[in-house]
Structure formats: C-alpha cells, structure tokens
Amino acid sequence: MVEGESLFAGEVWIQNDYIENVIKYNDINKRYAAGEQFDEQIDCMDNLLLPGFKNCHAHGPMAFLRSYADDLPLQEWLNQKIFPAEARLTEEDVYTLMQLAVLEYIRGGITTSFEMYFYPEMIAKACRDMGFRVVISGTVFGNTESSVTEAIDTLKRDYESLNHSYPLVDYRLGFHSEYSCCKELIEKIAELGQTLEAPVYMHNSETEREVYECIKRYGMTPVKLMDKLGLFEYGGGGHHLVYTDEEDRRILKEKGIYVVTNPSSNLKLASGIAPIKEYVEAGIPVAIGTDGPASNNSLNFFKEMYLTTTLQKVKYKDAAAISPYEVLKMATVNGANMLGLSKCNAVAKGKQADLILIDLLKPNMQPINNLVDNLIYSGSNDNVIMTMIAGKICYVNGSFRVNTDPLDVYEKANYIISRISFGL
After folding, report:
1. What whole-number percentage of the chain has pLDDT above 70?
2. Beta-strand runs (E) in 315-398
3. How many CB atoms lie within 10 A of CB 273?
4. N or C: which end of the chain has fewer CB within 10 A?
C-alpha cells in the first residue's frame, strides 16, 4: 500500500514493534536473505501480507446488544432500546465487552479501532491488556447548563489522561452528534479543539430526519453548522455523512474532513446509502467503519469493504463507481492517516509492524486473476491467517495469543446481557 508501488514478492524484517527492512525479490524463487540471522522465521507460503485494517468508527462494547434490538429505525432503536440498556452498564462490563470486540477485530484482520463509548479508561485498559491498538473518541452529549460543564470537563480530563498514555492507546476529541448536544456545548467543544489545535469527530448527517431537524433548528445542515461554529478548524471526521449537499461537500474538502462510511449499519437501520463516489471524485478522503455490533451486527471488515463498493454501483447505476483498490486504500491507508497513525499505513521500512496475512490457498481466492479484486469481492474472515500488532502476533491459524481466555470472555458477556435484560 505504498503510493506508486505495485504488489511484489519478498520478505519483511521486524525488529521489536517496527519494520526494519523490506526485501523485494528479483527472483521469485529466492528465499530468506543469505547471512541474516533471525530469532524466528515465518514462511508466508506466497500468501498476501498487508497493513492491518483500520476500523474508523466503532462502539465495540455494544457487543452485548448484538441481536438485541433489531429491525427498528435509528431514533426508536436508540431511545427505546439502546439507551435504557446502556444506562445499566458498569465500568467492569465495558472492560469485558471491549475484550469481546477485540477478539472479533483481530480474528478479522482489524489492527486498530476508533472507539466511541462510555468509560474510555476501561476501553484503554482492555486494549492495553490484550495488546490491541486503539484510538478513543470523546462521546459526550448534553442539553443543560450542568451537562455542558460536565461534558467539557470530561473531554479535558480524558484528553490529558488518555492522549498518548500508552504506546497502543491514543485519544481524540469528539461528541455524539448535533441532535444530542445543545449549541452551547458544541461551541465549547469547538473552542477546546481550537485551544488544543486538535481535530474533532462526531456522528454527522446519518439520517434524513437528523438533517431536516437540524435545518429546522438552525436554518442549515449539520455540516454547515459545525463549520460555522468552528469545529473543523483543525480537521477531524464525520461518521456516516449519508446526506450531504454540494455546499456540504465543498466544506468537507476545504477543511480536510474525513468521511467515515458505515454501510452495513446504514443499511440495517434503513438510514440510506452514502454518496461515496461523489466524495472520492471531490477529493474528500474516505475511511471505513463497522459502527457497533448492535446496529451491524458484526465487526466484519470484509463485509464493509464489499458493501462500500457494491452499494455505489447500485446508487449510481455505474458498475465501476468505486474500484476495489480504492476501497482497500480506504480500509488501510486512509484509515491510518485519519487517526494520525501514519506509521501504520503501509508495509515499508520504518513503519509499525501492524500486519495481516491473507490466505490465498482457499477456494474463494482462486484463480488469481486479480488479487485485490479477489480480496474485496470474495474475501472473508476465514482468509485471515495471522494478525500482528506492534510486532506481536495476537491471532494465528485459528488461535488467539492474548492475555485472556476467550471462553471466559464469552461467559461474562452472556451474564452481562442476562443481568441487564432480566434484572439479575
């Protein structure tokens, strides 16, 4: 995924957490470089080595609500089912549920997630304990004077305590959405972002109702409102951005705002199909997210990549609307760059060793007429042989190498939802 370079055969040397060297074979039959000594050698069997996928919008701990509140529109889904259940979560619950999400992530080749959820310190702890790279987003909201003060204090505290708090943990300013925050709170967040010279992230223009009600309140779309209030001065991103007009897109391009598309969630909640083709043509960077397990219901990045391209074909009646390579770039390079992880965006010397190995010796990957097309159109989690984060293998050949027992995590997760559902 290095700009201007094509696929090549070769080997990757890893020292601690970074890529020390990349050797390209002139002779496809050549093997390990002569004279070099390694602690361990892994024969990748002519399979595909890639930078790991970056899940740029997720609520991982919502795994406890998987298949709990299906087949409802967004606002009803949130207010009647999700928010009441989440109100009963404890800090310990979030720790366990984030562990469950991490297991699903690494099984499917995701090496980083951008998490927006409650108890961020527990999310950080779960990821730290499991060796998973995470960027945490603020998720504040509020519509009263006291809630505004509390939200800003929370953002300041978390930014100071979690930003670069651990080699695999980072933090970004964020809030839930325009419709869950009063104007005063959004203005205060904008001021904080400008003071810290930091990007800001939020749900944005996810549904027609959201856009309509924002126009009714403020006389403008959510994108225009955020820009007017100064939220975009240091970049950032909008999750979903399903409904935007030409002026919205001009603002996104001008301010360097990333679009994070979440096709499975938008389909399942009947929210719509984002105009990704128009974003790409306008030069607006696009990344990909799964959203949460309550609205997806899986954290399967292969599904998201497939839908990112195929839905555009239907939306624009254009079979070549978005190419598979463009989608792979969104999933790896763009996602890393959006999160400020430029050291994790490619297989190249000096980059972080956040790598995945894709099994090409499976029926769904043969014959190899076009390797990237195979990956996007027919790839699946079953093709992930290995997931490596910061030079450490955390999943390989069906086995997890993390500091927890998956069966114990599953048991605790089932207890959590039983307690919340039945008051145990």
Report:
1. 97
2. 355-358, 384-389, 392-396
3. 16
4. C
